[in-house]
Amino acid sequence: MPQYYILFLFSLIFFSSSSHASVQDFCVADLKGPDGPAGYPCKSPANVTVSDFVFSSLAKGGNTTNIIQAAVTPAFVAQFPGVNGLGLSLARLDLAPGGVIPFHTHPGASEILVVTRGHITAGFVSSANTVYLETLKKGDVMVFPQGLLHFQVNAAKIHSSAFVSFSSASPGLQILDFALFANNLPSALVGQTTFLDLAQIKKLKGVLGGTG
User: Fold this and answer.
1) What is the CATH number that goes with domain 69-170?
2) Which residues in the chain land under pLDDT 70?
3) pLDDT at 20
4) Could you give the residue range(s) of every CATH 2.60.120.10 domain in the chain?
5) Alpha-carbon gap, residue 204 to 200, rounded angstroms
6) pLDDT value of residue 36
7) What is the pLDDT at residue 73?
8) Is 37 helix (H, G, I), strand (E, B) or coil?
9) What are the disulfide bonds (predicted)?
10) Cβ within 8 Å of residue 118, ≥6 positions away
11) Pairwise CA distance, residues 48 & 52, whole Å
């Protein structure tokens, strides 16, 4: 029997046997259930409505009257149940003049940023400590690989904004400054592990709400 004919028969059998597999169109999050590595459990399709697939809160800028003079409005699974299990989510960044999104990481996702107003200086640091830095204008796009430290700073004298997309419905977030100075890790240990001056550490803890 010719080899190509055997391959054809094998393919036919494989696809015939798999054609009866259950295919699920979506898994709208049941936010009352536990959030595990695979996401939230699915809401019953009988309880799913079009509102689960529509999110309107990114139309309005966030409140930038805070210590970083910036705001992040997320459309993650907790706010937008329809993205559950789809491997994507969104957020809006708003930066007042002088605003900054400090060094942070997303352990669960890569990020793409699209500038929609003003100018934003953005960058990330690779695991080899190479810095990739650019000042972006309206319409420019930059990608930040998963897990790498990155930041955004308003480089304009006006309000700047951007939309960001993530390759996960729950990208996760850890802000470096808050990880160091907004908890009860003893200041002496922070000093030992960062080589920072103890007085400066205590000052930053005071600003960010840390103790110790």
Assistant:
1) 2.60.120.10
2) 1-23
3) 45
4) 69-170
5) 6
6) 84
7) 98
8) coil
9) 27-42
10) 95, 138, 154, 155, 156, 158, 159, 160, 161
11) 7
Question: What is the pLDDT, as a whole number, of residue 107?
Answer: 96
Amino acid at 56: S
Q: Which two tokens stand for residue 130?
A: 């190479």
Known binding residues are 104, 106, 111, 150
SS3 24: coil
Annotated binding-site residue numbers for oxalate: 106, 111
pLDDT (0 to 100) of residue 74: 98
Residue 89 in tokens? 């989510």
Residue for token digits 């304009």? 156
Cα–Cα distances in angstroms (integers) from residue 106 to residues 62, 117, 149, in the given order: 20, 24, 8
Please write the tens of the pLDDT for every residue from 103-135: 999 999 999 999 999 999 999 999 999 999 999
Annotated binding site for Mn(2+): 104, 106, 111, 150
* CA-to-CA dists, residue 52 to 27, 31, 58, 118, 211, angstroms: 10, 12, 15, 32, 41
